[in-house]
Design a protein that fits this description.
two-stranded antiparallel sheet; 11 helices; TIM Barrel; 8-stranded parallel β-sheet; single chain
């Protein structure tokens, strides 16, 4: 399995981060990762300069593992539907040029009011995105999360999201930390949706729901990686460090995760 890193480790720093996409690429390459997953928030001007982006990746011997796209409304506001679709289409253009999956953030809203209507709006958006992706030759996946705005946390909610989008061909981008923090059993979630898994995010969390460096929390990565290997999974394992060590030294934090992957034979 190929091992890469996601750019949220820098995105979570907010105004504390004043670097560039090139700084991120340098840190990921120096840590020994084979690839990187950029988000629309962190890619900067490279989004409109794909040829330059490819050269920047190639110059560091990195691959683009996937492209992640999130919208401010969590894909749940009917008034934002056209804007959300326009953003998805732009993201699909980049993903198509690099032949990588497009991973869409899970449904979210700052308010729990009208949750049913918001979920239906998100399902519609995901289905449309998957159909548009199929026309472009791009696999589109959904990445449910466990932030306080999430509308999809439990096993039953994951089941509903994936059942509502199965016909369109939407795939699943599971995240180990978000699955556990949402109250699910990690391996059971992967097993339940094994046919839809196309891309995997790896981060750790403790029993209290606090992010931890990989190997320091309760996620059973050895067992998960063994299971993925037995299933023939040959996609990316994407490190996404969000613990407090990122705020101390993000480059050291992601290098620590890379060392943990190597300790498990990845």
């Amino acid at each position: 399995m190929k091992v890469g890193h996601q750019t949220y480790s820098w995105e979570m720093l907010g105004d504390e981060w004043r670097g560039s996409a090139d700084d991120i690429l340098n840190a990921v390459a120096a840590a020994g990762y084979a690839g990187v997953e950029f988000s629309n928030v962190m890619i900067g001007s490279y989004w409109d300069r794909p040829a330059d982006f490819r050269r920047a990746l190639d110059g560091r011997r990195l691959k683009l593992a996937a492209f992640a796209y999130a919208a401010d409304d969590g894909f749940t506001d009917p008034a934002r539907r056209e804007a959300d679709l326009a953003g998805v289409q732009k993201a699909l253009e980049l993903a198509a040029q690099f032949s990588v999956p497009l991973c869409l953030a899970g449904p979210s809203s700052p308010s729990g009011e009208a949750a049913e209507e918001k979920l239906l709006q998100a399902f519609q958006l995901y289905n449309e995105a998957a159909r548009l992706g199929r026309k472009r030759g791009v696999v589109v996946a959904v990445h449910p999360h466990s932030h306080h705005t999430s509308l999809v946390l439990s096993a039953q909610q994951y089941d509903r999201l994936l059942e509502a989008t199965e016909a369109s061909g939407l795939m699943f981008n599971p995240d180990t930390g978000h699955i556990v923090r949402g109250g699910q059993k990690l391996l059971e979630c992967f097993q339940r949706h094994r046919e839809r898994i196309v891309h995997v995010h790896c981060k750790d969390v403790d029993a209290g729901g606090r992010w931890q460096p990989m190997g320091k929390g309760v996620c059973d990565f050895p067992r998960l990686f063994e299971w993925l290997g037995a299933q023939g999974y040959d996609g990316w394992l994407i490190s996404e460090e969000e613990s407090e060590i990122v705020r101390l030294d993000v480059s050291s934090a992601i290098a620590q995760n890379r060392a943990y992957f190597r300790s498990l034979g990845q």
